[in-house]
């Protein structure tokens, strides 16, 4: 994609994010907040079960779930809203990166103290959220990443494992982040630190977030987590070479950024 078309795509993405945010005003709360951003694309079958598994409070913070439906074609937005959860909707499918940007913007506008991300498919265990938040509350880290390789991984093995390990080595090479699991979407970030990060990638968010965290001098830490098999549906990741090539492109662009 040329720089001109990438710029136009970025502007269109900004418009999609702005429209989603305009549909749901920030939540103002006088208590400390941990916002949990959950990107969801056609996850109507299980999204409510995932949301109901979240605690109301976590280490003294109010838990504020934020569902971001990225141009889905099923009833994910309807069932999440009917269950009483904040739900932002992209009018077109942009990708996980822009869905996370939308959730981050809403969390920061709501004055969250810590911002987390987790998947909508039931792979991440809410009972481990405290493990990610604890180093931030103890002022030992600004960015905490879950690692399946330090913990448990029900779908371990095969080419996917090799790919994750290979991309992790490359990200560590360009960022010195010192992580073991670069594709894990179970993370927690200090809100003040998140404001310093410049995120632009519409689809593959993980490499950019890690590289940006390291570039901005955030204290990065990993904790062991248990990644379960999907509770429903099928993976939404691109097939064949689209995923690794797209992921590699994000690493290259993020590393080249000054």
Explained architecture:
- With 258 residues, the protein is an alpha/beta fold.
- The chain has a single domain, classed as Spore Coat Polysaccharide Biosynthesis Protein SpsA, Chain A (Alpha-Beta Complex).
- The protein has helices at 3-22, 47-52, 76-82, 96-109, 129-137, 158-175, 191-194, 205-215, 242-256, and strands spanning 33-40, 57-58, 61-70, 86-90, 114-117, 143-153, 187-190, 220-227.
- Helix 1 (3-22) crosses helix 4.
- The longest helix is centred in the N-terminal third of the chain and has 20 residues, at 3-22.
Question: What is the fold's blueprint, element by element?
Answer:
Blueprint: H1 3-22, E1 33-40, H2 47-52, E2 57-58, E3 61-70, H3 76-82, E4 86-90, H4 96-109, E5 114-117, H5 129-137, E6 143-153, H6 158-175, E7 187-190, H7 191-194, H8 205-215, E8 220-227, H9 242-256
Helix pairs in contact: 1-4, 6-9, 8-9
Beta-strand content estimate: 15-25%
For the biggest sheet, the summary is: 8 strands, mixed
What overall geometry do the principal axes of the alpha carbons give? globular
Mean of pLDDT: 91
Helix-strand category: alpha/beta
CATH topology: Spore Coat Polysaccharide Biosynthesis Protein SpsA, Chain A
Q: Poorly predicted ranges (pLDDT <50, ≥5 residues)?
A: none
Comma- or semicolon-separated keywords:
8 strands; Spore Coat Polysaccharide Biosynthesis Protein SpsA, Chain A; 258 residues; single chain; eight-stranded mixed sheet; alpha/beta
